[in-house]
Amino acid sequence: MSVLALAGGVGGAKLANGLAAILPLGTLTIAVNTGDDFEHLGLLICPDLDSVTYALADMNNVELGWGVADESWAFMDAIARLGGETWFRLGDRDLATHILRRQLMQQGDLSAATDEIGRRLGIAQRIVPMSDDPVRSIVSTDRGDLPFQDYFVRYQCAPRFESIRFDGVEKARPSAGFLAALGDPALEAIILCPSNPLLSIAPILAVPGVREHIVNRNVPCIALSPFIAGQAVKGPAAKIMTELGIATTPAAVAAHYGELIDGLVIDTADVGALSDKRPALFATDILMRDPADQRRLASEVLDFARALSATAR
Amino acid sequence: MSVLALAGGVGGAKLANGLAAILPLGTLTIAVNTGDDFEHLGLLICPDLDSVTYALADMNNVELGWGVADESWAFMDAIARLGGETWFRLGDRDLATHILRRQLMQQGDLSAATDEIGRRLGIAQRIVPMSDDPVRSIVSTDRGDLPFQDYFVRYQCAPRFESIRFDGVEKARPSAGFLAALGDPALEAIILCPSNPLLSIAPILAVPGVREHIVNRNVPCIALSPFIAGQAVKGPAAKIMTELGIATTPAAVAAHYGELIDGLVIDTADVGALSDKRPALFATDILMRDPADQRRLASEVLDFARALSATAR
Question: What is the ipTM of this complex?
Fold first, then answer.
């Protein structure tokens, strides 16, 4: 049996880490958003791939919420002295990943580089980019169109979010590893991790063929709400949803995913927020404070999926 | 009036720094060996250019003798964890130079990148690569042919040195800045810094046209001996000269440079070592312990050049 998880940044990485820990080695594929990727200081930076990789390698920086643990910043000091760009901070340790990725990509694609980095860090589950073709999330705001990291990091999500598009996505193909997981006869469940639906999960679903694959699934697809009592656990989801006039509620998440999902995992704080028959609901404590929470929630999500699988679809 | 200095690594950088300090701003060009350059972790590393740049920016690491002061090594730790190459150590601060150079070279050549890095570090004299075309020093040894940094750093000069060649040099052109300095009507002197004659100065002289330019000079050309009482101040020069059956003496240095030089600066410890009429000799304390020594020696070298210039050539 195998499981496919779709993940974006930090929240997705946490659940992915829980799933990775409890599923037999080699049975989990995590397909990760690459719409946030960008070129910086001549390096390809893949924030979501790295968040998932660092979480599974148990080297993620818990205090910062991004990057590598025990990070230092001598490189940034030197770049500042040299008059280089400093709005996007690259730690000394984090930098090694970007340098190695660039080196590996001189002989292979992003999938191969991601695979090799995971292997070297001792990660036994499979992390794949949603696509090996470049896709770039562009946010339309009241200050014009901004590449995602400019909107997110440089301007700290301050501009008013109007819409998002994924440049290049119409020509992108799902990565081979993603396609293999989608078509795996042993597939047991598809999990949409609690990443931002508009920023992190939407680009993955926008890769041609992915949405159709999931719509035509014969296994349960479960989403996790990224909201607890109207608040995003982390990140700008709540602000953006509000600016778009979408409620930060499980009902809005359910409406957003529509026919894509069979089940939605919500926080106990939101019980009673939905009354429709579909999707099926499972309420629990969805806040992941530590790896124990990650494993517990992952286990509950898989049990929920199996329960849905046992009933008629 | 202007001065042209040819320099390699640490010894050359020290005298170049002394010359830079005492000459009026904008009147010194330092043409630097690029035969030691190599690609590492996907970056272009230019050890000699960086040694000169860091010395003139007063940010060189005096303890190590290479790299940047106050260096840290978190990046190397992370590269080691990722199974990357660690035999050539890149400090966190040093790395910023290589990253910026790569970025600058996406839009220009090595000369332009070197110029821009120098400008950003507040260097007012001109540092130019000997050529913008790639030249790679290859050392033939009893363990086979080795790229220079493999011989020098990876194997710590342990293999027996048999000969050196400069791959690509026959097609290389002197950089525009180097040519401009060589042809400057205001040129007052050419200084061959106390860098290794075979490893550091020879590749510069091997760039087509350079030797001819210097042979046909109408200003004094002064070399500094890299030896004191039969010992190299730093680096493998003495070992290599011995392996080649060349004495580590001012006489051997004079014979090596031949008609290229008018004067040779030697240590007072070596007075009496030469008795020929040419080159003219100037003996002083040539060990540069600190910036004051660098300025004092630079000043003596320039006085020596001017004295030679005043006499008939």
Answer: 0.91
